[in-house]
């Protein structure tokens, strides 16, 4: 019996940066708090494609959303919708490979104490270093 599964840590946290002067460049600001993730992934041998919609609450007004990501490329623009149906699009998307973060600039400022969702499509490669989306196997008795 061969057992194999995929482990995924792609968009664990979402936050924005508004004049955040943190000594730890890997931490995200608490300006935005995620509340729900709807994630879809299709994988092939060594690559994958996916779409994610993340509902979030804005604690402090912001026009920038920052997320942890690893080895991902965002396809096209990100779309942000307010729960009152107001829409916004990303004006830029920046990747910081060292900190494994992606920064999404929006075409408007999201008001504090409001609810929104962001939707984006992405692609990437399966990794072999146990980061992001990776293949893993385990032993069941003496069977791998």
Characterization of the model:
The structure is a single chain. This protein is mostly beta strands. 0% of the residues lie in helices and 60% in strands. It has no helices and ten strands. The strands form two sheets. It has an eight-stranded antiparallel sheet, with no helix packed on it. A hairpin with a 4-residue loop joins strand 6 and strand 7. It is elongated. Residues 1-22 have low confidence and may be disordered.
Distance between the first and last residues' Cα: 7 Å
Write down the secondary-structure element order: EEEEEEEEEE
Rg to the nearest angstrom?
A: 17 Å
Largest sheet, order of strands side by side? 2-5-8-7-6-9-4-3
Mean pLDDT: 81
Shape: elongated
Helix count equals: 0
Backbone structural class = mainly beta
Number of strands: 10
Structural descriptors:
single chain, mainly beta, disordered N terminus, two-stranded antiparallel sheet, 144 residues, eight-stranded antiparallel β-sheet, 60% strand, elongated, 0% helix
What's the helix and strand layout?
Blueprint (H helix, E strand, L loop, with lengths): L3 E5 L5 E2 L16 E12 L3 E12 L3 E7 L3 E11 L4 E10 L4 E10 L3 E12 L7 E5 L7
Antiparallel strand pairs: 1-10, 2-5, 3-4, 4-9, 5-8, 6-7, 6-9, 7-8
